[in-house]
Amino acid sequence: MEFAVRIDPSDEASQELLDRLAERAEVRPMTHGPGTALVLGGARSGKSAWAEAQMEGVELVDYVATAERFEGDAEWEHRIATHRARRPARWRTVETADLEAVLAESDEAAVLIDCAALWLTRVLTDAGAWDEAPGWRERVERRVAALVAAFEATQRNVIIVSNEVGSGVVPEYASGRIYRDELGRLNARLAGVVDEVWLSTAGITRRIK
User: Does 32 participate in catalysis according to the annotation?
Assistant: First the structure.
């Protein structure tokens, strides 16, 4: 059986209770700690805002933007500008899809990746998934496996944001079903190797691993 217990670490009685519980079962704190974390959520669920809030007070942060930019797409540029405006000026913005290289760096800066879903879109496009080009699944698998391995090996403190796609309707078009299925698999594999998993719903974020 699994349940949540709120503990005040400054209170001796609370700490004694935590110690007793730890003797009987695995006890996971409900606060975000160092290491790697995945935060999932639907559109406008608050997942990105939660991830950014975890970096408050952190001096060095690499904000990794995985979105591909398209010239002339004013609506997308507005979204990017909105995200950029709410980030502290001291954060370093890194625009890349090479997440493996970021995770392999020996750098004391914390990492916030936003997001895995946009990263996967680029991977699927490069692999020829939308046209179901021969061998696209193998090419996607190589990139996903490399990313999962990078999360297992990294020594950096990392939060990666991703879209939760498993609760919606089945997409009408084949490309939508490919995207939903591949993102669901990616989320599950990342969840299996990170230290923490969080789920955002209607602006409320709770730890589920």
Answer: no
